[in-house]
């Protein structure tokens, strides 16, 4: 995120300068509005999968891609020790302003501490970017786990986006995995550099997890092809 438009938008909202929302799109979908108030949601307005993940949280926590700090703030209020990280400088500023105690601007692969719970939410597999990088990221997440630790991660199977009116699938099997997307973000007339973003179906996640020594349990499915999974080190 070279321009950090995401961070700028969060800072505008936090500092009372909210005049317009973020605009997102992908290489297979049209422009859509991402309302800034949604990025500041409380527990009651979170999707059910996020609520479930927070209820399952235990011990010392790493909140990966913390955004405005919603998950971290909720867990802090419940007495958890939480470290919140994000690559967005603006997001980290906002998290600090909102009261997240321990927060740091860094990429996941730069983290070295160990934790009891790793939260990788809001389509957490997106940070893997491409299917071929999934094992690298999962191995790193595994290295951050304390004994009996857990990774709570969510994603969606976006196969439905390739369906035609008759229910047929238009997926080119000669190209990359269908969940690998180019993600575009714009804010107040500025465009962010496109980034790779990965939506991962559960069976594929399960397969890669087993290959790197992680158990992968389907915890809950959402209403729109989304799911929450719990990963842990195989006995």
TrEMBL record:
Keywords: Methyltransferase, S-adenosyl-L-methionine, Transferase. CDD domains: AdoMet_MTases. The keyword Transferase applies. The keyword Cell membrane does not apply. GO terms for biological process: methylation. InterPro entries: SAM-dependent_MTases_sf (IPR029063). It holds the Pfam family Methyltransf_23. Gene3D superfamilies: Vaccinia Virus protein VP39. Its EC number is 2.1.1.222, 2.1.1.64. It is an enzyme of class 2 (transferase). One of its GO terms (molecular function) is 2-polyprenyl-6-hydroxyphenol methylase activity. PANTHER family: METHYLTRANSFERASE (PTHR43464), UBIQUINONE BIOSYNTHESIS O-METHYLTRANSFERASE, MITOCHONDRIAL (PTHR43464:SF19). This is Class I SAM-dependent methyltransferase. It comes from Lacinutrix iliipiscaria.
């Amino acid at each position: 995120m070279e321009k950090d438009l995401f961070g700028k938008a969060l800072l505008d909202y936090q500092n009372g300068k909210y005049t317009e929302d973020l605009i997102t799109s992908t290489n297979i979908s049209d422009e859509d509005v991402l309302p800034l108030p949604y990025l500041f949601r409380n527990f009651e307005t979170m999707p059910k999968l996020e609520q479930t993940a927070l209820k399952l949280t235990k011990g010392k926590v790493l909140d990966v891609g913390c955004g405005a700090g919603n998950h971290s703030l909720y867990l802090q209020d419940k007495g958890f020790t939480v470290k919140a990280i994000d690559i967005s400088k603006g997001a980290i500023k906002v998290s600090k302003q909102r009261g997240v105690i321990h927060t740091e601007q860094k990429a996941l692969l730069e983290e070295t501490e160990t934790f009891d719970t790793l939260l990788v939410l809001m389509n957490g597999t997106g940070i893997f970017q491409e299917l071929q990088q999934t094992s690298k990221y999962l191995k790193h997440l595994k290295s951050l786990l304390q004994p009996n630790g857990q990774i709570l991660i969510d994603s969606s199977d976006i196969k439905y986006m390739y369906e035609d009116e008759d229910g047929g699938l238009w997926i080119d099997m000669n190209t990359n995995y269908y969940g690998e997307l180019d993600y575009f973000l714009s804010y107040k007339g500025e465009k962010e550099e496109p980034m790779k973003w990965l939506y991962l179906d559960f069976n594929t996640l399960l397969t890669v997890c087993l290959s790197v020594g992680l158990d992968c349990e389907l915890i809950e499915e959402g209403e729109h092809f989304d799911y929450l999974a719990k990963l842990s080190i195989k006995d």
